[in-house]
Protein: Phosphate regulon sensor protein PhoR
Organism: Pseudomonas eucalypticola
Amino acid sequence: MNQNWHSILIRHMLILVTLCLLAGLVSGYYGWCLAVGLGLYLGWTLKQLLRLHHWLNKHQPDEAPPDGYGLWGDVFDSIYHLQRRDQRVRGRLQAVIDRVQESTAALRDAVIMLDSDGNLEWWNRAAETLLGLKTPQDSGQPVTNLVRHPRFKEYFEAENYAEPLEIPSPINDRLRVQMLITRYGNNEHLMLVRDVTRIHQLEQMRKDFIANVSHELRTPLTVISGYLETLLDNVDEVNPRWARALQQMQQQGGRMQTLLNDLLLLAKLEATDYPSDNQPVAVCALLQSIKSDAQALSGSRNQRITLEADDSIRLKGSESELRSAFSNLVFNAVKYTPAEGNIHIRWWGDGKMAYMSVQDSGIGIDAKHLPRLTERFYRVDSSRASATGGTGLGLAIAKHVLLRHRGHLEVSSVPGQGSTFTCVFAAQQLVMQATGNGSLRATP
Ligand code: ADP
């Protein structure tokens, strides 16, 4: 095999030419003898080439190569050994693939591989039970055609997979699945789908419990508040010493009522994905009315509240929900900004998204609190919150309302200097309106 074919070939050619010349010497036809000799050699070489071609195209997997002489025999053997080595490597690879497939098939979670365009490439058995994928018909289909939930389509197309998505299974409404997408390689996607029905049921029980308790507490609280009001109205007839106690009871009763209302509103917001109302809301007018309420709340603290809004941008959704979210942000700014401070409300668009921001020159929030700010009952400083009479649910409500309007909340703050809460809304939620009065500039 390791022979020096270069010198052997030269030697063979020399022998051939010498034999041809000898034949020419004998016959006297040098030229013809040389031509016939080289022609025969060429013919033999072509024949070997054809045998090689035939063997490469027609041979069975383990069929030995044809016998060959000289260099051709060596070429046949080398190709044969290369093929055997290739088969062994392929066998080993196949064994690895089989093991990976066996282990992923045994997984209870679905594993789905998608190409860079989101078309299905491969999935395990759990993907068939959780999402109803069919082998092999669904191969190459866009995943958004098979998982048709609108939230999934948005989640997939937004390409922001930092948080998992939870939706009902496309084949069974009672099954709840959580999806997590990771990008790998050449922008391909790996999708993991988990059955979270049990966790969802527990979560649902918790929500129902809170909603039911809040609802049940409402009636007794209304009765107590009613009697307190009557007693306070006639406190002089009852006993004037009770006046202060009754006033405090009424104040705390009021706080409890606000808390119950907020809890019920949250439960309502969590019950569905999107608001039933989907009319274009005139955000400019809505903010003007919230600004008036904020001015009343500010009262003697005399904060300077300004509004700048683009009236040509309307937001599709529920006006009452948006009012709750926006007023929570604006009233927080009033509550957490000292007297004579500045509060600036803005509503504007940049051609792609629309933004509603509330900027204040208040006490600000330390950066470590920002990630947890929208959690229920999360308070930066509990003594500060009880002084302002907040329920600790305002930002949780705002976050939920924004989510239902394809938006999200961004918060930036510098302690001691102020905070900016910005609601960002996606283009599909906006309606551009040609208005006569145009945009509303900063109004004190
Ligand atoms: P609360 O009803 O207590 O105001 P929220 O959910 O509205 O509850 O707000 C959560 C916490 O975030 C508040 O307790 C407060 O400490 C902080 N916070 C909210 N808005 C502001 C703001 N504009 N400036 C400073 N702190 C704020």
In short: Residues 328, 332-333, 336, 360, 362-363, 365, 373, 378-381, 384-385, 390-396, 419 surround adenosine-5'-diphosphate (CB under 6 Å). The CA atoms of residues 185 and 340 lie 56 Å apart. The radius of gyration is 40 Å. Residues 279-442 form a domain with the Heat Shock Protein 90 fold (CATH 3.30.565.10).
